[in-house]
């Protein structure tokens, strides 16, 4: 669709930048690029995706928090920016709750717990019995201290008994490889990352965390379905604007995001990346943040995890 001239003062009247605080080529970056292409067509204005990875989303989020609130800069990030980082880090360069305005809940994600393909168990009950009977802590991987995988791992001891020892990685791909070669007992991973190792016969998925099964791996039952409650916290991707952005612009972007996400081709691509498409109002995203933030914060406090 060709770009057309817009009346002075209408939005958008210049290119839009969406900052993604993750490395190019990752699952979140891939999802946002698909959405960005749709927004470019819908808004008849160029939408640029700008990856700014670093410090568990802090680098990119700080850029948006301090950007001019003129509708030219937005953020799409995971829940860690709001639910984890304010408790995990001793000091942040911005206040997520005050400096970023909710626009829309973009998608819900799922992570799973995986074991070596020949592990002597296939479900959580068997995994718990195996850990308790081996006489030493089971090692488990995640993508960093204070990550959702780390915190879920801390919950395993309370839920299943036995001892678990956290091993932080830079990402879940290497952790999955180490599970497959036997140097790591278990790991948390996204369904997308795990699928390749599962198909190769190196690892197997045991259960999915989250309130619902993953749209990208619907055959895998959840912790709740296997009789282990408490692992239904939301892992979500949301869109945000700098504080002070006019409400008319926030509402317009929310509406355009909802239209884009509802397109079957885009929804299919999001599902392929392990994300269940949502699309919500700003108020609905704000409600999720109010509900989930104190829960994650308490988990971090209990874990003792801190990043200076």
Task: Write structural notes for this entry.
The longest helix is centred in the C-terminal third of the chain and has 22 residues, at 282-303. Helix 6 links the parallel strand 6 (138-142) and strand 7. Helix 1 packs across helix 9 (247-262). The chain has 308 residues and is α/β, with parallel strands linked by helices. The protein is built from 11 helices and 11 strands. Helices cover 41% and strands 20% of the residues. It has helices spanning 27-43, 58-65, 80-88, 96-99, 124-133, 148-160, 172-181, 191-199, 247-262, 264-272, 282-303, and strands at residues 16-20, 47-51, 73-78, 100-109, 112-116, 138-142, 164-168, 186-189, 203-208, 235-242, 275-277. The chain folds into 2 domains: 16-109 and 233-303, D-Maltodextrin-Binding Protein, domain 2, CATH 3.40.190; 112-208, Periplasmic binding protein-like II (D-Maltodextrin-Binding Protein, domain 2), CATH 3.40.190.
Total number of helical segments?
Answer: 11
Which architecture of the largest domain does the CATH hierarchy give at level 2? 3-Layer(aba) Sandwich
Low-confidence stretches: 1-8
Strand order of the largest sheet: 2-1-3-10-4-11
Taking the sheet with the most strands, its summary is: 6 strands, mixed
Q: Termini distance? A: 48 Å
Secondary structure category: alpha/beta
Multimerization status: single chain
CATH topology of the largest domain: D-Maltodextrin-Binding Protein, domain 2
């Amino acid at each position: 669709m060709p770009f057309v001239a817009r009346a002075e003062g209408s939005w958008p009247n210049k290119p839009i930048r969406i900052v993604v605080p993750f490395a190019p080529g990752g699952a979140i970056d891939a999802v946002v690029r698909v959405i960005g292409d749709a927004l470019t067509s819908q808004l008849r204005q160029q939408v640029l995706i700008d990856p700014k990875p670093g410090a568990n989303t802090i680098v990119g989020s700080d850029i948006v928090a301090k950007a001019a609130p003129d509708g030219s800069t937005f953020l799409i990030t995971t829940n860690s920016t709001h639910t984890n980082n304010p408790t995990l880090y001793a000091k942040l360069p911005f206040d997520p709750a005050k400096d970023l305005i909710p626009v829309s809940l973009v998608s819900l994600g799922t992570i799973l717990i995986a074991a070596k393909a020949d592990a002597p168990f296939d479900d959580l009950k068997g995994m718990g019995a195996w850990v308790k009977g081996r006489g030493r802590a089971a090692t488990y991987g995640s993508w960093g201290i204070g990550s959702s995988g780390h915190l879920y791992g801390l919950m395993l001891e309370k839920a299943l008994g036995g001892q678990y020892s956290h091993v932080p990685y830079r990402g879940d791909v290497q952790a999955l490889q180490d599970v497959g070669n036997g140097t790591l007992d278990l790991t948390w991973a996204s369904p997308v990352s795990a699928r390749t190792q599962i198909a190769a016969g190196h690892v197997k998925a045991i259960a999915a965390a989250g309130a619902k099964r993953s749209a990208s791996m619907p055959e895998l039952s959840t912790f709740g379905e296997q009789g282990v409650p408490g692992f239904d916290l939301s892992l979500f991707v949301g869109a945000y604007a700098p504080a002070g952005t006019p409400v008319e612009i926030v509402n317009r972007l929310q509406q355009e995001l909802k239209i884009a996400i509802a397109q079957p081709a885009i929804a299919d691509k999001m599902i392929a990346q392990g994300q269940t498409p949502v699309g919500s109002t700003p108020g609905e995203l704000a409600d999720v943040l109010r509900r989930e933030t104190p829960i994650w914060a308490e988990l971090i406090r209990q874990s003792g995890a801190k990043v200076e």
